[in-house]
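Quick start: what a row looks like.
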Amino acid sequence: MRPLLLALAIALCATPACAQDAMAPLAPLIGCWRGAFEGNAAIHDERCFAPMLGGRYVRDVHAVRPTDYSGESIYAFDPAAGALTFTYYASDGAIARGAARPEQGAIVFAPHTYTGADGATQHLRATWRFESADVFVAESEREEAGTWRPLMRIRYVRTTPE
């Protein structure tokens, strides 16, 4: 579906079945993935996406290896905002909330605030671009003094089927 039509369909969504359809942009992610951090192949991210509660939500659980850092995101359709939303919970106590939208072979995460357990904040944004059904690249940026700067780039390869 073309991005404009999908955005319109999501905006008009109000029923439970329609909310499930609004989650369709996340369907290609269902399954498990392993990604290498650009510039540091010794560190990798293992993550799994799974539908939950009848497909109305998607859970994304990840662990950065060989560290102890991990996190979980819950993606949902917010009918009031007419958008896909997420809440991210990190093992170190950090939290982030924001919105995402499908965009021509990608999922674009709007600028949002990541708040560490100590209260320190970072303004982040990201794009997850699909290279194929079994590969996607996640690029994150951090805003510093009004300028967006690269934060990290991870190339994920599917490890389990959908």
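That is the whole record. The longest strand covers residues 40-52. Residues 1-17 have pLDDT under 50 and may be disordered.
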